[in-house]
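hiii so my PI (J.) wants the whole complex modelled not just the main chain, which honestly fair. so below is everything: four entries, each one labled with what it is. i double checked the lines twice but i was tired so who knows lol
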Amino acid sequence: MMPMRIKDIAERLGVSVATVSRALNDKPGVGDNVRRRVLELAAEVAFTPHGAGRGLSTARTQTLGFIVRRKVFPAGRDPFYLHIMHGVEEAVAERGYHVILSSVGDPDGTRPTPDLPLVRENRVDGLILAGPDLDRALILALHQAGMPLVLVDNILRQTALDVVLSDDREGALAMVGHLLGHGHEQIAFLGGPPQWISTAERAAGYHEALAGAGKRAFATVVHEAETTVESGYSATRRLLAQAVVPTALFAVNDSMAIGALRALREQGRRVPADVAVVGFDDIDAAQHTHPPLTTVRIFKERLGRVAAGRLLDRLADPATPSQRTYVGTELIIRQSCGCVLAPVREEVTAGSTLA
Amino acid sequence: MMPMRIKDIAERLGVSVATVSRALNDKPGVGDNVRRRVLELAAEVAFTPHGAGRGLSTARTQTLGFIVRRKVFPAGRDPFYLHIMHGVEEAVAERGYHVILSSVGDPDGTRPTPDLPLVRENRVDGLILAGPDLDRALILALHQAGMPLVLVDNILRQTALDVVLSDDREGALAMVGHLLGHGHEQIAFLGGPPQWISTAERAAGYHEALAGAGKRAFATVVHEAETTVESGYSATRRLLAQAVVPTALFAVNDSMAIGALRALREQGRRVPADVAVVGFDDIDAAQHTHPPLTTVRIFKERLGRVAAGRLLDRLADPATPSQRTYVGTELIIRQSCGCVLAPVREEVTAGSTLA
DNA sequence: GGCAGAAGCGTAAACGCTTACGTAATTTTT
DNA sequence: AAAAATTACGTAAGCGTTTACGCTTCTGCC
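here's the output for the full assembly
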């Protein structure tokens, strides 16, 4: 019942532990005969090396950390980062690694240089840092301490770090292009914190699309401090109080778009007849809004998979130059933009509350 | 830069590593003087024991595994279990533990007794097994191997295991009681797989409520093999084809309720005017449906916290008798049941698409 | 003042694995 | 056929902790 250890295998086969270890790890210095016998027995008893033992001698834990700011975690929020983590888990499992989840609280300031128990305890070989609002000082400290890192949905300027992003600019470009193609002239933008890479890039895509079409941005471009349903709601109300009302509303993410839907409905404006509303992310709720939300899908699991791949590659070869990877997006046309003629790509269960 | 190890502390203080270890672990056999100096220095350099080293000598990893069936994970599904995991993470972090996420695939049958790499590698002290459709053989094998376990949203009859469940029967009782109290006579039930504890208990609560009120169950009680939007949709269509149509529809979970909303809408029935629809779970999407969905809220993070607590307690004292814990639910009255008079408890951002 | 017991501390082994080094046997080279 | 190089294996040290055991020094007691 007690699992076999290398020592036991060595004993049963009448060889030394060193030989067994070499055989198991494909190292030279073992005869074909002995090697075969070792591998056979190992397979038979489903031998797996003891994690801590191996870790102690190799200084490798075969484990990655997935770090996310506690605030962006669920509790009513869309589980965007959980989807990313799921992608990470699948990818690393395929390569024999594990993931430890850790959500960091607000910097408490009790420690001069912020750090993570995970790291101090040497429990991880590398970290995936997800989300735009992780403490800069923390990231820098980890990087300078030599911890292999990959950033997801975030960048750190002036620093050679691996970064995985969704192609937000391209997605926004496509979205706004789509609206323009359907005759919208007055497209307002509900933005988020400009220091977040994703929201900044989406804003850039918005402006670029308009410029490319020779149009001007809608007079009032809002930049909210948060990207929640509430902020989308209040921003839309402020927008509607203006003299000229937009014909389309591009929210920087789906949560804000949902807030916009609510504000419009309360003001008696019909969506999409009076004003079109589109979002970004394709969160789970987007297909259940009324009307179902046209949006730009982000492949969240894919982001996780790619980030994990980058990190594992870097661990295998620490000299790999850092790189920035963009994961493509996809336009999801539902009813909230009124562009029924556009090609509709929908999964079977979507649009449960078709209007 | 290199983190200090016990050896270094011992050297700096001119004592032995054993003494340092004893001081750090609050063990007797250390003078007050030396102890103080050790603790001071340790605090100063933010010493944290090396995970693998400690793990190797104590056979404790300070790590828990969170296991979930791959199929129930996101990719379009509601991240129910991710919320649970989040609760787990918060709870264990407070007690200095870590969580490793692992989603298990379908049993591939290549191994006579199913097991987990996590366990064979001795990476975890215990496991939280989430979801009703984990392989029975796996659970039993782990249990018999002496691995501390806690089940969430699942039970294993005939086995003394710690179990954490939401109080589904009570929730269903309250929900159906609420409908009855508002005059509904014909309440249909859209059920799920009866071997799942949660769906079975909800069905039981439904019948119990009706029996308590002296009513009979609606002639056709449906039990679907899946609890998806699609199955809710098709089950509702079948129901509507019957001679007598219910006045209220109680779906065993929110996904099915969403499917029901779609089917009703397609058939031209108004919700809640013609037929009330209620669900269970309070998934993220429930507040964005049209109309917003009345449902029974499950405290998913709390489930995770409680499960983690049970497991940690058991690790601290392996003799703890196994126990079954029920986490209460909460009726969330929104618009889909038409019972506007009931007390409405809503968070601020809810009901974004108020009808 | 002598002795038992306790307290404070060091020594060394153990956990399970990898790996540098040494040695004997085998193969290759001349 | 002798020297040199290669191969196959064992020995032992090391990774960072904890802990059983043993030695000294103190304390208290008669």
